[in-house]
Every structure is written in structure tokens, then in C-alpha cells.
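We emphasize that the prediction below concerns an isolated chain of 279 residues; any contacts that depend on oligomerization or on bound cofactors are therefore not represented. The input was used exactly as deposited, without trimming of termini.
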Amino acid sequence: MEFNITTKIDILILSFLVITLVLSLLRKNQKILLRTLFTFFLFFLILNFKYKSTFLNFLYYVAVSLSLIPLYMNARELEILFRKKEKDELILKFERLIFKKEPSIYFAQKIKNPLLIEILAFGYFSFFLQFLVFGLLFYFKDKELLSLCLLTNLKVFIIGFIISFFFSVKGPRYVLREKLEKKNIKFSKDVPVFKGYFFTKIIIFIIKKFGKEGGGMPSIHAASNLVFVFYIFQYNTLLSIIWAIVTLLLFISCLKFQFHYITDILFGIILAVLVLIIS
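Result of the prediction step, given as a C-alpha cell string:
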């Protein structure tokens, strides 16, 4: 069973790498091309040895998890390169119609306590943390569950990329910056700065260093965390409840830090549910 699932994982990753390779050649983007070729090389290397020993099998799962990083970066940069017209104004009109206000502005103003902001920052950081913590847990306790979780995350990621490719947005921290600054929200290199502690500083650093405009619709962060909640539930009910609460914090943090519109979050939830049903 595990072999069949990992084969599907391999096919998805290699297919996406081929797509990014072709698109990077079309746009003559050397950076994306080199990153894709490097990922290709590493992945092929590990593929040939993943069943040779326990250690190499472990490295395979680590490589699959880490491969999401260059895939994510490539997807964001390709979206920007092929972007024709952003749909931010359409999303903002939709949100004003439904909520009678702009939720992004509302959430940016409402939570000011540094401790609460730190808790929300941890919620956002959980997106990165879950691959390490639950990846290791599932690997040693239920490898098949880990394979299914990674496969579902890859499906979410690829479908999300396809949607964002055709429904491109810049994101609230770019489009609403002028309005946010009038509400006394300070910015540093296109990132709103809020008072927090350890995780807050980490999140601001990551976004300032690696963040790209766009790629927010639907929210892959929201979808991925929900996928983990589902698979954690298969393993331990109490852990899944805890992670569901952490995922709720991630939803709010995306709005507070202006990484996503509330529409992105809602469609991220729908995406995760649909992929889980299909899977």
C-alpha cells in the first residue's frame, strides 16, 4: 500500500517539476530554471535509493517534505511572471457585499496585545512546524498515514497553484497598504509590523526575506493545516482537536498579518474539503 502511495507522490512531484521547467523556459527565467533542475537532480537521486535502507527511506520522506519549499517558491514566481490582471478588486467587492466592510482592515486594527499577536504568529508558524512534528510522528508510528498526508498536501498544493495561476491576486498587504497606514499600521519592506516576541519576529523575517506578492487565492496555508487536522484525527482525536485550534489561529493570523483575504481562507477550506473527499 505504501509503495502505491509513494509512487503517486513521485509522479505528482515530477509532473509539477516538468511543468515549472517548461514555464521557466518559456519565460527564460534562469533562477527558476536552475532551482527546478537542482530539485530534479536531488529527487531523482533519492528515488533510486529510497527502498535500499531504512535511513534512505527516511531521507526520501524528508526530501518530499522539503521539496514543497522550492515548488512553492517556483509557483509564486511563475504566477507573477505570467500574471495579466489581478483580481483583488473583485475579491474586495465580494467581501464588502457579504461583510459590509473590509475584514482585512478590521482584523489589522482589532488585535493589539503583543501576547495575543505572538499566539497568532505561532498559529501561522504551525504551517511549517506540522511537516516536521507530525511528519516524524507519522513516520515512526504510521508510515502509510504519512504517505497519504503528503500525497493529499501535494494535490492541494498543485490544484491551489492552478487556481491562483488563473485567478491571480497581489494580496491585502499590497493593495490595502495605503488604507492600513492611515489606520496607524506600520510597514517594513511591504510587511505590516506588529509588536510581538519570538514567533512574531520569525514570521516577519520569513515574509520579508522570501515572501512574494500574489499566490493567495486560495490559501494553501489554510488548506494544508486542515489536511493535517484530518490525518491527525485518524491517529489521535485529542491531538486533532489541539491542531484544529492551532489551525483556527492560523486563519486569524493570515488576516491579522495581511497575508490573505478572508475569501482566500474560505476557498482554502473548500479546497481542502474537496480534495479530502476525492482522496
